[in-house]
Amino acid sequence: MTAPMAQPVDAVLTARDKGVPERAMGMTIAEFLATQPRLDEFWTPLIVLDDAAMRHNVETMASWCAQRGLAIMPHGKTTMAPALWQRQIDAGALGITLATIGQVRTARSFGAASLQLANAAVDERSLRWLASELADPDFRFVSWVDSVETVEAMAHGLRGASRPVDVLVELGADGGRTGARTIEAAVAVAERVAATPALRLAGVAGYEGSLAHERTDAALNAVRTYLQQQVELHERIRHLYGPGDVYLTAGGSAYFDVVAEVYADVTGAHRVLRSGAYVVHDDGFYRQISPFDEGRASDDAPRFRTAMRGVARVVSHPESGLALLDGGKRDFPYDEGLPIPRAAASDLGAPWRLLDDATISAMNDQHSYLRADVPVGAVVALGLSHPCTAFDKWRVLPVVDDGESGRVIDLVRTYF
């Protein structure tokens, strides 16, 4: 059994950890948590995580995958938080997916033993580092390639490695992101991999999420067609696979239900999802597009819960109907929709009242424009959209035991 990733509870809290109470300065995370802190000690702005909701989401996804014989290697770049990666591993994840070789190095520094790089690695310096890591026989690693040039760059950088690197041929699509644009081009890449001693052909990969951003019939059909092409590629090149594990992988956090549908009858490979945002879900983009959104009509479908929220304080009320908050683009995500004002209170720890018809109309670096009459000094709870651009703004995020509690039971540290 793989040892758990080292948890950074010995990290010392400093003034660089925004939002953390002054009394925590100089304490380790473990020492601070032993004092039973409460959220109303923290400074604003904040992003707060809900422990009960995160546990529900991780368990829901793990159960759903297990029922369908799917594996999951959740995308760790969403949070870059080893403590949250460990929750996913403990729930049965095959490993963690990452987006850059630098993130792979970070994960290895915490003892991660099973990693997928959902990208190409072509930099000779980072490939030399990877070659040294391959000396660990317990390290499972798989990367992607989408061109002959990528294959050649990997072969050059991996000279002297103790074993070949498992690689997946990435199939793309017109208008998508990376990936060979046709099945024929992908087959040619696979053939080159099979003829390259430094690499082992280990399957097919791709990302369907860049092909659609809604759940209309046209969007779902585009995703389904692409995934069927992935399966066709898998069948075309399976005779080239070397001995060892084989993977067929797709599945961001929006269309993993379609991936499960198309992959259902595939044989000869681990069918692997890479969804990552589900650990906290959100109150915007994924709430609208996820098959497990709380608002979907089917009563018997699984449901994710929103497990992150922003908190900001009113610092100015310069005119009727306008309040300025102390959190902006440096604190909260905004690329997939502006924050949504949900409730206000006189202070953290005080009763919340719902905000009806309030909106955030604009954001600056350190301010958000709240269109509502909320007095100076009050705090506002914000629904947030897109976890992938929320966590990167914070070194430490407090975790409360549930959405209604002010008891802080953990601090999640990120490593972007």
User: What's the shape?
Assistant: globular
Q: Compute the CA-based radius of gyration.
A: 23 Å
- Give the biggest beta sheet: 10 strands, mixed
Strand content: 15-25%
Mean pLDDT metric: 94
In terms of quaternary structure, what is this? single chain
Which bin fits the share of residues in helices?
A: 25-40%
Q: Please, could you describe this protein's structure?
A:
It is globular, with a radius of gyration of 23 Å. Strands 1, 10, 11, 12, 13, 14, 15, 16, 17 and 18 form a 10-stranded mixed beta sheet that branches. The protein has an 8-stranded parallel beta sheet with strand order 2-9-8-7-6-5-4-3. The protein has helices at residues 29-33, 51-67, 82-90, 101-109, 124-133, 148-157, 183-194, 217-237, 256-263, 285-289; strands spanning 46-50, 71-72, 96-98, 114-117, 140-145, 165-170, 199-205, 247-250, 270-273, 308-319, 322-325, 340-345, 353-354, 359-363, 368-371, 379-383, 396-400, 408-413. By secondary structure, the protein is α/β, with parallel strands linked by helices. The model has no long low-confidence stretch (mean pLDDT 94). Helix 7 packs parallel to helix 8. It contains 10 helices and 18 strands.
Describe the structure in brief.
With 416 residues, the protein is of the alpha/beta class.
Give the SSE map.
Elements: H1 29-33, E1 46-50, H2 51-67, E2 71-72, H3 82-90, E3 96-98, H4 101-109, E4 114-117, H5 124-133, E5 140-145, H6 148-157, E6 165-170, H7 183-194, E7 199-205, H8 217-237, E8 247-250, H9 256-263, E9 270-273, H10 285-289, E10 308-319, E11 322-325, E12 340-345, E13 353-354, E14 359-363, E15 368-371, E16 379-383, E17 396-400, E18 408-413
Parallel strand pairs: 1-17, 2-9, 3-4, 4-5, 5-6, 6-7, 7-8, 8-9
Antiparallel strand pairs: 1-10, 10-11, 10-16, 11-15, 12-13, 12-16, 14-15, 17-18
